[in-house]
Amino acid sequence: MKAIVYEGMKNVKVSNVDDPKIQKEDDIIVKVTSTAICGSDLHLIHGMVPNLPHGFILGHETMGIVEEAGKGVNNLKKGDRVIVPFPVACGHCWYCNHDLYSQCDNSNDYGDGGGLLGYSNTFGGYDGGQAEYLRVPYANVGPLVVPNDLADEQVLFLTDILPTSYWGVDIAGVKPGDTVVVLGCGPVGLLTIKWALFKGAERVIAVDGVKYRLEHAKKYGVEVVDLEEHDDTGEYIKEITKGGADQVIDCVGMDGRMTKLERVETLLKLQGGSKSAIEISSKAVRKGGTVVMVGVYGARYNMFPLGDFFSKNITLKMGQCPAQAYTKPLLKLIEKGKFDATDIITHKLSLEQGKHAYEIFDKKQDECIKVILKPN
Asked: What is the pLDDT of residues 356-371, one digit of tens each?
């Protein structure tokens, strides 16, 4: 089969690789109909996530048709159309039983976090879904059958960015009347803005440094702040909100545009004036407010403004979204026409155009916000 594989720093290619096979009784094989590139995939190709071997199949936003099911699979059959949430979760450990699927104790032998599809050996070593076929472990837990009358584009994002963006707003405690700052207007950030409005936020401020993304955010009727226009974006937001926002949701994480050296330099200058999302959050949130980090971060960070958060009684929440806990209720909203995420799709390309797709997404070319890839 054809698949997009990692071939070194900022280098991916479409290669012929072995078809996946059933390895355990509760595996399924999915024939991919749509897959997408996520901002966190850029962290992989920029070398920000360790233990990513050459030839590793990328991708964790995937849906398709069940091609084969192991004999231990009891809720799916050949021909079912499914979305596949990105966490790999067993469904029966303590964490899965408490809806923390992204922290599954049995899906990752290489680290404390749970396994993730297509996200290096550090997160379990599972092949990703930017391919013609995908092996899905623990298929009785993750994959969700979706109605045939909904297009792939309407439901594909249930695999990651729809649950992730909703989860960020949910754990932030956004409620009617709140002021919310959303850092980053990529796919997750734009959906976070929509969910904040859905939850009744009175004022939403979208922050980014890419003008076409800010223009897209404006379509939702929210305020925008171009961080390139301010020496200290956090202080500016604190000023215009008269003390800070109720919630700040960081959808940036490790900025995929930076090299390792640039990132080190950024982390060493987390004083006033830095464009770091963490630093902006520490200033833009009101006393007693909440900061949620749904953007992906790496290992340890020096110069983290812990004292600033501590002195203001800030609640910090963060991590990988336990997507399986949200797919069913969010699917119901889509079915009822109460939420639509398709407006963020700017490019639909073939899987064979994967290298080009990564390039325009990474380099912010052609006003690219979200790319969907279709196997032939």
From this structure: 999 999 999 999 999 9
Take residue 118 and report the two structure tokens written for it.
């297509």
Model-level pTM?
0.94
* DSSP bridge partners of 318: 293
Higher pLDDT, 48 or 18: 18
User: DSSP state, 211?
Assistant: H
DSSP 92-135: SSHHHHTT-GGG-SSS-SSSSSPEEBTS-GGGT-B--SSBSEEE
- Tokens 């070194």 -> residue: 8
For the segment 306-327, the average pLDDT, to the nearest whole number, is 97
Q: Residue 271's pLDDT band (boundaries 50, 70, 90)? A: very low
What is the C-alpha to C-alpha distance for residues 196 and 215, in angstroms, rounded to an integer?
Answer: 18
Q: Alpha-carbon distance 173 to 167, whole Å?
A: 10
Is residue 255 very low, low, confident or very high in pLDDT (cuts 50, 70, 90)?
Answer: low
pLDDT of residue 229 exceeding 70, the answer is yes
Torsion from C-alpha of 70, 372, 256, 135, nearest 10 degrees: 10
What are the start-end ranges of the E strands in 275-366? 285-293, 315-318, 345-350
| Cα–Cα distance for residue pair 325/272, rounded to 1 Å | 38
CB atoms within 10 A of CB 284: 29
Backbone angles phi, psi at 58, to 5 degrees: -90, 170
Helix axes 161-172, 187-198, angle to 10 degrees: 50
Listing from the earlier edge strand, what are the strands of the sheet with 245-250?
223-226, 203-208, 179-183, 245-250, 285-293, 315-318
**Packing angle, helices 187-198 and 211-218, rounded to 10:** 20
59-113: pLDDT as tens digits: 999 999 999 999 999 999 999 999 999 999 999 999 999 999 999 999 999 988 9
User: Both ends of the chain: CA-CA distance in Å?
Assistant: 11
Q: Is 2 helix (H, G, I), strand (E, B) or coil?
A: strand
Q: Report the half-sphere exposure of 33 (CA within 13 A, side-chain side).
A: 18
Give the up-direction half-sphere exposure of residue 284: CA atoms within 13 A in the CB hemisphere: 31
Phi, psi of 102 (to 5 degrees): -75, -5
Look at residue 91 and give its three-state secondary structure.
coil
